[in-house]
Amino acid sequence: MQVKKLQDLDVAGKRVFIRADLNVPQDEAGNITEDTRIRASIPSIQYCLDKGAAVMVTSHLGRPTEGTVGPDDTLAPIAVRLGQLLGKPVKLVSDWVDGGVEVEPGQIVLLENCRCNKGEKKDDETLSKKMAALCDIYVNDAFGTAHRAQATTHGIARFAPVACAGMLMGAEIDALSKALHAPARPLVAIVGGAKVSTKLTILKTLADKVDQLIVGGGIANTFLLAAGHNIGESLAEPEMVKEAKEVMDIMAARGADVPLPTDVVVADEVSALARANRVAIDDVADHDRILDFGPKSAAKLADIIAHAGTIVWNGPVGVFEYNQFAGGTKMMASAIAHSEAFSIAGGGDTLAAIAKFDIAGDVGYISTGGGAFLEFLEGKTLPAIEALEARFND
Ligand code: 3PG
Ligand code: MG
Asked: How confident is the model at residue 242 (pLDDT cuts 50, 70, 90)?
């Protein structure tokens, strides 16, 4: 993947338009509850300010209706948080597409929610051209939105005088490429979550690449079903058994492996008060629900992880939100944290597990992408990255 990089450009005195992904969770009063994406956007912004660029930053927030800025849509709370992190106030500019943007070298302004502009979601050419005309350099730093072909992530890259990747985008591309395109072996992938159906493309793509494919959660249950085990009343998708078998066959044909649990943690219900029992996989009763890997299986996973060269992690192996079903995910998280391998993690649940087990500092790279991370794992070309690649040579 060849894209121009912000660090390689002379931005002094230039008008720089940064598309960031500042789409962060908020509580009902609008307070930001988690600001990782804002913090991850700071290096590119700070770099441009330090070099004397006139900096315009925009992002989407939520999925608003185009043409109005409702009270839930405004980037006002983001401007405040950005200002705190940069140590200077950040002015929020509305009506910036037609009204124009006044900003001096060394200054920053935040441009109101770009998804409130008519034509953003449809990647409208007229809107893209107007936005491109605001700047000398377009910087896409919004990896979390790289799977969307919209006017600020795609169209504008075609018309801006220069289009490049910001530092976060560059780091995401480098980390994901390192893990998937040139991995140190063995390459181990962990794919957890509720459903095979939502992750089928990922499972199939990874089945062609990885040395070991660890499946967890409801996905593992469907694989257990496919392998002929009784899974009682566990969450699974019987209609996906054929696909699960296919994935295991692809792996087996390559001499690779899908290590299924040999012991599991079961309960009658999924709740904080549920009584958990550890049983061998052949002892799962008809009324049981499998809610975690058992200790023997978790130890086996930890061993696989300990010998990996590269680890790609998306999704927990158990219902880790409840402590009695958290053992498998905890042991896995700890194995990843202690491993010498290059590890990369992404996805909402995965980030929650990383936070719960406090291993953020010990993971090689934590992606800010949710959907974008998953589509990268699926082997898809992300439109925002493709748009930057198309501008590499000019
Ligand atoms: C996300 O949070 O997934 C990204 O910011 C992209 O948002 P979207 O799914 O609304 O396009
Ligand atoms: Mg999303």
From this structure: very high
Nearest CA to ligand 1 atom 6: 145
DSSP state letter for 275: P
Please tell me the distance from the alpha carbon of residue 158 to that of residue 146, in angstroms, as a whole number.
15
The closest alpha carbon to 3, from 114, 149, 157, 161, belongs to 157
Pocket of ligand 1 (CB under 6 A): 21, 23, 63, 144-145, 148, 370-371
Which ligand 1 atom is the nearest neighbour of the CA of 370? 3
Q: Is 222 helix (H, G, I), strand (E, B) or coil?
A: helix
Of 143, 130, 48, the closest CA to residue 96 belongs to 130
What does the alpha-carbon distance between residue 38 and residue 78 come to, in Å, rounded to a whole number?
8
Q: Give the residue-averaged pLDDT of 315-329.
A: 96
Tell whether the torsion through CA atoms of 24, 28, 33 and 35 is positive or negative: positive
Cα of 145 to ligand 1 centre, how many Å?
6
Where do runs of H (alpha helix) occur along 27-73? Answer: 36-50
CA distance 49 to 11: 9
Mutate to test the pocket of ligand 1, among 19, 21, 22, 23 (most ligand atoms within 8 A of CB): 23
pLDDT in tens, 339-373: 999 999 998 789 999 999 999 999 999 999 999 99
Q: What is the pLDDT of residue 99?
A: 87
- Tell me how far the alpha carbon of residue 25 lies from the centroid of ligand 2, in angstroms: 12
Q: What is the reported pTM?
A: 0.93
| 110-130 residue pLDDT tens | 999 999 999 999 999 999 999
User: Does residue 394 have a pLDDT over 90?
Assistant: no
Q: Which of 39, 195, 209, 380 is catalytic?
A: 195
Rounded to whole angstroms, the Cα distance separating 360 from 283 reads 36
Mean local confidence (pLDDT), 9-35: 96
